[in-house]
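ugh ok fine here u go
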Amino acid sequence: MLIDWFTVGAQALNFLVLVWLMKRFLYHPILRAIDAREQRIATELVDAAAKKAEARKESDEFAHKNAEFDRQRADLFLKAADEVKAERQRLFEEVRQAADAAETKRRETLQNDARSLNDAIRVCAQQEVFAIARKVLGDLATTSLEERMGEVFTRRLRELDGAAKASLAAAITNAPAPALLRSTFELPAAQRAVIQHALNETFSAEVRVRFETSPDLVSGIELTISGQKMAWSIAEYFVSLEKGIGELLNHEAQPSHANSSVPALS
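structure:
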């Protein structure tokens, strides 16, 4: 078999041209396309990683903000609870103070009512006692209340003990002004003379006396000189009377106070 070297050479040349053509126009573009695609894929992977990292960062920030929000919400809830507690305590304190003020006012009202009642009873009792005393003295002894008052005063004057008598005697001796004798009612001339005589006799001296009337004395006579005083009045007998009436009123008020914590006031 004969070999046609020309044909072999032509085929070899054609093969080399084909390889060169394929390398130039096929392999290189394909390799460049593959490289470009790999570069693009690598870039996309880098971008995806960056986006993933950004997303993770944003997720962490969101979680942090969510935790901060929860903390702030808890703080606000505690603050609101404290404010509600403080406001409730303030309102309770205001109610308690108002109740205490109302109780104090109620007690003051009751005390004022009791004081007014005692004053009314005392005035009424004084008037009744004066009226009865005048009537009894007039009916039984043909003696006026003023005369009887003068007699009692002079008797007590003569019954002074040593210390009281000496103190009044020294005041009378050293007094630059006359002694002042006040009485509830205008004393008749005869009663003035009797009292003047009793003073002179008791202190063994001529005692200067100035007589005055003083309605504020509760049916009595009062001698004042240089700060020294001697007095007698029916008011002394009202002390025990007022004490007894006060105890009676307190005794009568206790059951109603025990049965009702807030009594009705008209």
